[in-house]
Amino acid sequence: MTAFDEKEKPKITGTTTKKREIPSGLWVKCKDCGELLFSKELAANLQVCPKCEYHFPMAARERLATLTDEGTFRELDEDLVSVDVLQFTGVAAYPERLKTYQRQTGLKDAVVTGLGKLAGHDVALAVMDFGFLGASMGSVVGEKVTRAIEKATELRIPVIVVAASGGARMYEGILSLMQMAKTSGALALHDREGLPYLCVLTHPTTAGVMASFASLGDVLIAEPKALIGFAGPRVIKETTQQELPAGFQTSEFLRDRGLVDLIVHRKQLRATLGQLLDYFCGRSGRKFRASE
Q: Does residue 153 share a domain with residue 34?
């Protein structure tokens, strides 16, 4: 054995580097084109992919900030909360689900309603938030939308609804389906007074919401490539056992067939709503429709 073999093997010294963790939520992958997007840049672009123009879902309060004149929005019925009338249990109990989404979104339920100004016009607004239980319509959503419509009728001002929903809320059973008639009835009274109602359909707007107040606007505006319909394409295909046309139930498909009046990019939505309000109300005041 040589002297070298008897020596202790040299040790490698130095600091070890740990893999840096990327904070969650820093990047978002576009669901349409697959582009990796910086979250702050996406928010600055109104949650629209700068590469393919895909419109991501938008939080209700964020949406309100882009539509209403600064400092004019006043929320109504913000303390209404759902109750577990049916004592529904599944993977998680209904109260637990509500608490989870209330914590995640900062909302009490899936819609924010209130009064404000848009391009100088007094309006009542109801903006749904898909981040809260898929913007499903339960008793609170139906009640808040109805109250906003009734307040608009009382004040003789237009109603604007930004709709998004996966359907009725199964946790509330028939009570959720009753909201379809209640909201539609309130809109009928609003219409009888000759007052304008504008509805914006976002991705997705389906089931009971689309089958009630979301389809009753004097003007139906849709965001590009939004899924709009009663049942989803997969369910319809399985039920009918037929191949569906290309682009079935998209904004573009429905516009070409007369259900949707306008498709408007999110960046032009406020200006478009302002122009429609000018038409219905007049630039300087309350005009409304000839049927008033």
A: no
- Asked if the structure places residue 292 within a domain, the reply is no
In the chain, how many domains are there?
2
User: Nearest CA to 119 among 69, 156, 74?
Assistant: 69
Residues 39 and 129 both lie in one domain: no
How far apart CA 259 and CA 256 sit, in angstroms, is 8
Task: Tokens for 155, please give them.
Answer: 């004040």
- Does any domain span residue 48? yes
d(CA 76, CA 115): 7
Give tens-digit pLDDT for 18-77.
555 656 668 888 888 877 888 888 888 888 888 888 888 899 999 999 999 999 999 999
290 is a domain residue: no
Whether 163 and 181 map to the same domain: the answer is yes
Q: Which residues are bridge partners to 117 per DSSP?
A: 122
Q: Please indicate, yes or no, whether the overall pTM of this predicted structure exceeds 0.85.
A: no
What does the pLDDT look like over 90-127, one tens digit per residue? 778 899 999 999 999 999 999 999 999 999 999 999 99
Quick one: 70 and 34 in the same domain? no
Domain that holds residue 246: 57-281
Give the Cα separation of 105 and 126 in Å (integer): 16
